[in-house]
Each structure stands twice: as C-alpha cells, then as structure tokens.
Amino acid sequence: MLVALQFGLLQNPNQAVWPEAYRNAETGRMYKPHHEAEQALVFSDTPRFGALLGGEGGGKSVAAICKDLNRLRRGMSGIMVSPDLQHFKKSLWPEFRRWCPRNAVVESERYRLVPTWEPAQPFALHFNSAVPDPADNKKFLVSTLYCGGIDDPGGWEGPNVNFAHFDEARRHDTPAALKVLNGRVRIPGPNGEPPQLYFSTTPRKHWLFEYFGPEKPDGEEDEYLSFKRNSRVVRLLTIDNERAGNLQAGFTDMRGQGLTEAEKRVLLEAEWEDTEDVQRFLTSITWWDGCREELPPIDRHTPLVAAADAAVSGDTFGFVAVSRHPSRKDAVAVRYVKAWEPKGKALDFDAIEDDIVEFCAGHNVTEIGYDPYQLHQMMTGLRNRKIVHTVEVSQQAERLVADKNLLDMVLARQVAHNGQPQLRTHLDNADRKTTDDRKLRIVKRHEKQKIDLAVALSMAVFRLQRTPVRDLAMPVSETRTSPWALGV
Fold first, then answer.
1. What is the CATH number of the domain that holds 103?
2. Which structural domain, as residue segments, surrounds residue 170?
3. Which of 72, 294, 311, 397 is deepest in the core (most CB within 10 A)?
4. pTM: predicted TM-score of the whole model, two decimal places
C-alpha cells in the first residue's frame, strides 16, 4: 500500500548539500549526457512528456534518475516507479542509490541509502532541497519522492506531484499506468516549473509506440497527435555508453552474441521494433526459384542499370546489373551478379573499382545506384572520371519503396533470372522489417549471413523502373567505353 505522505515543509535549518554534478558513488564517475538531445531532455522542464529510449546498458535509467534529482533539488516532489516492486528493488532502486547525494536526503531517512537496505513496500523519501522557504528564509523546502512498483496503477491515485518517472514501461501491456500518472502530475514547481511525466525504457511497439512513435502519414487519423507534439523522444545507444567508458569494453559485441539482428536493433539500438514484426523476406525461397528461366546472354548493346552495396563492416561488396525483360514489358531480368568477399584480409576497394570499370567498358551500363554511406567516394570518383553515371539511393525513403517493390515483383514472377547461386543465397538470408506505414526494409537475419546482393538487386530494379525507355535505348559505341561518353 502506498505510503500516504503529502508534499509539504519539514523543519530544516540547513540548506542541503547538493553537488554541482551527480556522481556514481560506486565508480566515482560523473554523469555526463551523451549528446545535446539527452541534455535537453534531462535539464529542461518542457515539454510535458518525455521518453528516454535506450538499449540495454545505454544509460537511460541513469539519465532519468539525474532528471529526478534535478527536480528534487529545486523543491519539486515526484513519483519514481518500476513496472513492479521486484523490478524496483533489483534494478531502479539500486541505480538510484548509486547516484543519490547522501546529504540531500533528510537525516532520519539516510539509512535507506545503505546497500543492505531493501524496500518491502512502496515508500516516500524526503529531500532537503536547495530552495529557500518563501515563508521563512531560514528554512528550505522539503521535496518528496514517492517510490515503488506500479503493477497496480490504481494504487497510485493518491499523491499530487510535479513530476513522475516510469522506468521500463515496455513491460506493461497497457497504458493504464501512463493515464494514472498523467493525472497525478499537476503541481507547478516553486518557481512555476511546469509538471512533467517521462519514461526511461527499452522501446516496444505497443502503446508506447502509439504515444511516442512518429506521427502518422498525412491522411491517416492519429488520435495521439497532440500528445506526440507535446513530447520529446531521445534514443540512447548501448555502443555510445560503452564508448563513453561507462560499460566494459566490448560489452555491446558480447551482448549481441546470440541475439538475432532484430533483437539487436531493439535491445542495443533502441529502435521501434518488435521481433515478431520481422519475418523472412521471401516466406519460401521457392518464390525466387519460380522466377528462373532461360535468358539470352547480354551483349555490348543491352542497356543495363546496376547497383552496388557494401556491408558497413566492409566484409562484403555486392554488384547486380539488370535489364528490361527481352520479351515481357512488365518484367525485369537479372543479367549480372558478382560478390566480392575477403579471403583472410580486408577487401581491396581499388581492385573492386577496377573490376567495375572493366564491366562498364564492355557493357551498356546507363547508371549505377549505390548506398552513399559506404560508397560515396568510389561512386563519386567513377562519375567525375566519366566512367559511368552514378546515383545515390536513399537508404530511408527510397529503400523502403524499393524493397517492397522487389518483393511484390518476385511474388508476381516479374523478375527473371538464370539461377545465380550467390544471389539466391543472399535472398534466402534476408528478413523483412515492416514499418508503421506498411512498407518494409530488407534486413539481415543474422550477423554472419550476407544480404548485399539482395539489397543491390532491390536498388537496381528500383532505378531501372525510374529510367525512361529512351535513356536505355542507346547502344555502346565500339570506340567509346561508357554510355556517359555518348551523352546518355
């Protein structure tokens, strides 16, 4: 049962000793925001709602705890809860105790900061704030922090406070706790500071996504639009906290071992995704096998659109060229596939570039689409040297369209191929991640499984369909080495 202690003033003749910055009592490390977005949420009193979405070990709970302390310091009372009392005892409370300045707590309650003390029920902790009592400048306001688990949201319908902090809200299947806490957060601070409700949690695509996710596309009704526009959402990555020295070196990689790529995106990168949202790109590889047919060999006059994709880790480079189908106007044909993989040493990008130049010299390549993240320098060089026209393919909006389009075309048997084994393997390795607006993205199923050729195919088909037929009709001259030299 919640301890019913009301916000008010206690006799305190001395101003609390608050540090200039919060320090972890066990490690000695000072709290430092990872970036400006985190700092803005932690030290700002607006907007009303906030979400610190973090991967495991990303520092989200610590950031929210420092925000709690900052408001308690300024004479504001609040609520700090976990999904249930057990989580509060084992996770949130030990973390809070590490960062809480001992002398800021009223003397009679400092025993609770001893590591051996463990809460058995919800309780209230009182703090000597740094704000003088306007009624008596020899005294200071006392702020109250109500603590516990919120497994029964209705049990928290008592205190009226200035702020509320809900840790790991993803473990609640309904927004009942949000609605109760939002009703409790109603008291302005001593200097008129507006009330706030904020969450520190690993994301989950349920009610949290409805409230804190992106605004729905134009034309779709969004009943939480006003809430979203009165919110601030910040993402904290596990790797950033490791680089800041707050985690053991290599923790992110070690934690990722055994996780699927979808689980990594949620648990380490704080992305809006549930693992059930990810499924195989092709529910069965037989859909791709059904697109196989005999195709005539390509010659120097067959207009081609190519695409290149390189893994972020630099361990695979995929290149795919496609053409319009020789007899079906509604279909495309896969004409060339090549994957470069390291053999005991890093990829030689200069050698790969030479191979691409040679391919373009012998074929009618009208353009190459590419992912600018890894290949900007190479593709810009090819374009500047007038080897071939190159085009960036956005890995956000355009990729979502391209990947969905490729899936639809395969299912409709509008992609013909000769059975290239490496491309088949990369397509079989691929999963699809569904977005909130029913688009999809090709993603890895597992870190070791390559999908670069599948991504290159998607981009090549996308660019082919956006190239006018007249721009694909000009043959390569016997004396010129690229269609760009002919003015294409």
1. 3.40.50.300
2. 36-273
3. 72
4. 0.60
